[in-house]
Amino acid sequence: MVHLNAYAAQGKLIMEIKDEGPDFPTDTLNIRRPFHSTKPSGTGIGLSLARQIVQAHGGVLTFCRTNATTFSCTVPL
Fold first, then answer.
1. Residues 6-20: tens digit of each pLDDT
2. Of all residues in the chain, what percent are helix, strand and coil, respectively (each to 5)?
3. Are 75 and 12 in contact (CB under 8 A)?
4. pLDDT at 46 (0 to 100)
5. How many CA atoms lie within 13 A of 52 on its CB side?
6. Candidate CATH numbers 3.40.50.170, 3.30.565.10, 3.60.130.10, 2.115.10.20; the one for domain 2-76
């Protein structure tokens, strides 16, 4: 199950995407590298492209592992 939580705080829009599906690979150093995929038919552009879009808007895309795989996107309002 995927959960999306979005809210505004201190002049920023914060979106948290939590995925309770299969664990994300522990090799998190490569997740931002373009064309790196852990899926046999994956292209490896999803997270790299998302990061570039967020950065183009002055934001930051971060990854953290809690009880679910979580990505946090923070952009200025």
1. 999 999 999 998 888
2. 20, 40, 45
3. yes
4. 75
5. 8
6. 3.30.565.10
